[in-house]
Amino acid sequence: MISDITIGQYFPGKSFIHKLDPRIKIILTIAYIVMLFLIKEFIGFAISIVFLLILYLVSKIPLKMILRGLKPVLPLILFTSVLNIFFVKGSTVLWQWGIFTISWEGIRLAIFMSIRILALIAGSSLLTYTTSPIALTDGIERLLKPLKYIKFPVHELAMMMTIALRFIPTLLEETDKIMSAQKARGADMESGGIIQRAKALIPILIPLFISAIRRAEELALAMECRCYHGGEGRTRMKQLHLSGRDIVACAVMAGCMTIVILLRIYLPWVI
């Protein structure tokens, strides 16, 4: 399960999506998330999912990688779906027993929530899959640049966010190694009650915490040895420039959002 988590991983490539400006990719990701929350019916979700699948095909990210990244959130989706099905009351009651009620509105909400969560994770993951940590840092810093006028530490915030995102796969790999080592020593972390399982996690969390601190110190020392300083005066090997492909991407996203909004306004029974 640990190895299935792909959050924060970057897959190098030369696709159209990879070559987009990181600022544009961040803005389009936020726009896609907003679009998902504007959708209220099945047709709208169908449009958003087809649009997302086309983006993944263009980016040439393997389909098995997408499915592997969604696998860890399936228990959460199943749990929320069960709550919505049994505890959301609607006018069309299909089955009722005590406090448990199954209605068409509850089933509909459970399906919508599941699709929305999956689309949110898949859509936001595309940003990290196709954007290197350095480019992502530069993009966040440029977008938050107006906050510098109120003395906000824009560069430091962007770097902390990117480093935290970048080290998620590393820490997950470290966790997998520690768990394998503990199992090889005879540790049982899968049987017993909740309290016993929680106690079994202590031999994993302590080495992981120490490893994370050690990696942070090594990273800080490496940055100091290279005389790194962010913010004003920092030079960049790759400058960010908008190109024609960025305009095309914005136009496509704007068109998709326009369709969703028009359907929501003029044909609320369709979207």
Write the layout of secondary structure elements.
Blueprint: H1 22-38, H2 42-59, H3 63-70, H4 74-87, E1 93-97, E2 100-103, H5 104-129, H6 133-143, H7 154-184, H8 194-200, H9 202-225, H10 244-266
Antiparallel strand pairs: 1-2
What spatial form do the alpha-carbon principal axes imply?
flat
| Radius of gyration over C-alpha positions, nearest whole angstrom | 23 Å
- Spans of at least 5 consecutive residues with low confidence: none
Multimeric state of these chains?
A: single chain
- What is the end-to-end distance? 36 Å
- Whole-number tally of structural domains: 2
Major sheet: arrangement of strands: 1-2
Strand content: under 5%
Q: List the helices and strands in order.
A: HHHHEEHHHHHH
Mean pLDDT: 81
Q: Which structural class should the secondary elements be placed in?
A: mainly alpha
Share of helix, binned: 55-70%
SS field, number of helical segments: 10
Notes on the structure:
This protein has helices at residues 22-38, 42-59, 63-70, 74-87, 104-129, 133-143, 154-184, 194-200, 202-225, 244-266, and strands spanning 93-97, 100-103. The model has no long low-confidence stretch (mean pLDDT 81). Strands 1-2 form a two-stranded antiparallel sheet. The protein is mostly helical. It has 10 helices and 2 strands. Helix 2 (42-59) runs parallel beside helix 5 (104-129), helix 6 runs antiparallel to helix 7 (154-184) and helix 7 packs across helix 9 (202-225). The protein has 2 domains: 1-156 and 241-271, no CATH class; 164-229. It starts with 21 loop residues before the first helix and ends in a 5-residue tail after the last helix.
